[in-house]
Amino acid sequence: MSCIRVVIADRSPIFLRGLTGVLCEDGSFDVVASCCGHTECILAIRNLSPDIALVDISMPSVSGILAAATFEGSCTRVVFLMAPEETQEFVTSEVSGAYGVIPKEAPAELLIGSLQQVAAGRRILPLASLREELQQQQGSSARKRNGANTLAALTDRERQIVQLVSEGLSNKEIGRRLDISDGTIKAHLHNIYDKLAVNNRTALAALAINR
Q1: How confident is the model at residue 114, as a pLDDT?
Q2: 122 and 157 part of one domain
Q3: Count of domains for the chain
Q4: What are the pLDDT digits (tens) for 41-76?
Q5: For position 140, what pLDDT does the model report?
Q6: Which domain holds residue 61?
Q7: Is residue 12 located within the same domain as residue 87?
């Protein structure tokens, strides 16, 4: 399968270098040019006709870059990168004709997946939807990290009981499985609830499953 040919443009040489590394490491992209200026970007689009131009939206002459993408029937699809401080209103007014906008704070997986969609001819989700997806991913990662850190505070026996609770076993069934008394299980559960800040088996099972 042929690589997706990409021109990248960003005013920050450090960010540009990191972005180039991310795409090259993926293996499905060929970065044919990386540019720190809008004139250089326009020339690269016209001369190289990449599949995608990934451009910092704060660069000057955004309209010129979009115009270059349609130069003499070019099939280049322009995607803009937007910093968190840039407003939705600014983006809406600037990107008419582009295939979409990707937040600069997006993880590599979201960036790569979005560009692959564009290469297949599909426009990216609206920026608001992408930001919502990004926030959900970040929240999920944080919850998983917090859950893992909290469960690490349990003893080996307590973790065994949490695992069996998450499998739906009753105290009596857990007692038979671990060869301990019902009273001991209740004492362990009391300690587990206290350590994990939960107050019932359902919440405990949910926490274990999320981990």
Answers
A1: 86
A2: no
A3: 2
A4: 999 999 999 999 999 988 887 778 888 887 766 789
A5: 52
A6: 4-126
A7: yes
Residues 118 and 176 in one domain: no
Residue 201 has pLDDT above 60, yes or no: yes
Residue 118's identity, in one-letter code, is V
For residue 16, the number of C-alpha atoms closer than 13 Å in the C-beta half-sphere is 19
Token pair for 4: 């997706």
Sequence-separated (6 or more) residues with CB below 8 Å from residue 147: 207, 210, 211
Question: Does the structure show a pLDDT above 60 at 25?
Answer: yes
Same domain, 116 and 165: no
Q: In one letter, which amino acid is 82?
A: M
- Give me the DSSP letters along the chain: -PPEEEEEE-S-HHHHHHHHHHHHHHSSEEEEEEESSHHHHHHHHHHH--SEEEEETTSS-HHHHHHHHTGGG---EEEEEE-TTS-HHHHHHH-TTSSEEEETT--HHHHHHHHHHHHTTPPPPPHHHHHHHHHHHHHHHHHHHHHHHHHTTS-HHHHHHHHHHHTT--HHHHHHHHT--HHHHHHHHHHHHHHHT--SHHHHHHHHHH-
Residue 101 sits in a domain whose CATH number is: 3.40.50.2300
Q: Which residues make beta-bridge pairs with 206?
A: none
Is 80 found in the same domain as 163?
Answer: no
Question: Is pLDDT at 211 greater than 70 in this prediction?
Answer: no
